[in-house]
Amino acid sequence: MNLKEFSNLLGLSPTTVSRALSGYPEVSEKTRRKVNEAARIHGYQPNLRARALALGRSYSIGHVLSSSNGSELVNPIFGDFISGAAEAGAARGYSINLTIAEQSSEESVFRKLKAQGSVAGIILQSPKVHDQRIELLKELGLKFVVHGRSSGVSIPYSWVDVNNHRAFEQATTFLAHMGHRRIGLINGRQDFDFAHRRLNGYLQALHAAGIEPHSDLQTSGDMTEANGYAAAKAMLELESPATAFLAASVMSAIGARRAIHDSGLELPGDVSLIAYDDDLSYLSNRQSPPIFTAVRSSVREAGERAVTLLMSQIEGQKVRNDQLLLETELVVGMSTGPRKSVR
To answer: Rounded CA gap, 282 and 298, in Å?
Structure first.
């Protein structure tokens, strides 16, 4: 049964039926219940292309990834975010439109998406500290939500982010309270805004604890196992080595754990380690007790929240708050302990 046949059965226009199935606020509750009940009884599933034509707009949500960050496609963090986003979108009839673009051509890709009307809105990933894409999307009039924030952008925009500053401030304070004074930070790439906020949280906690920061205990880069290993190994070989680490992801933490083992040391007896845990389905840290002490926030939930917020904007629904800050949870696992008096 197509949209026209289903609409005729109900004695309603195709546009009204499409809007009722999409949850548009201008459709009365009585009509919405009538349409949804009939769809259930008759097993009607709307054809997305037909519905888009009937309403004169797309039902795709765009994600544009830079080819310069090609590892993002195979990153389990992005995979879980997309899973949450796709599930939330599918529940209201939206699909995901994924585009890979050269960094130099991202602007033309956004302009093309707008001109073609091929997406209803955009989820912007991996914002930089100064991210010009936000102003571009504003200029183009595209609906968008940023996964993260950009400290250098002053114009208002919608975002869903984690309180990265507070997460790393809390984790650093936790280690300081256990007597650690040489705390190594294995951060994400410093041009990304989340890494900038995490560094500031780390530095603020060191200052509050009366600990002098040292540049040789701070590193940034791609959040891979190999980078986590190299960073931790270098800090363990210092004349005054690190006694604890903060790792920006579970992948980085796995590398740091390998470096600790290869250095003839043990967790948590010799060295402590805290990871940022995105609550990944593929790399779970939910054992009992958890392998890593971690600050945890679900990236899958962030995907669901971001797409739900974007769909509300697309459909003209009133949104109480279009800037959502998610807090992390400190989970104590098997990777932290008091600093040993002698190393």
So the answer is: 13
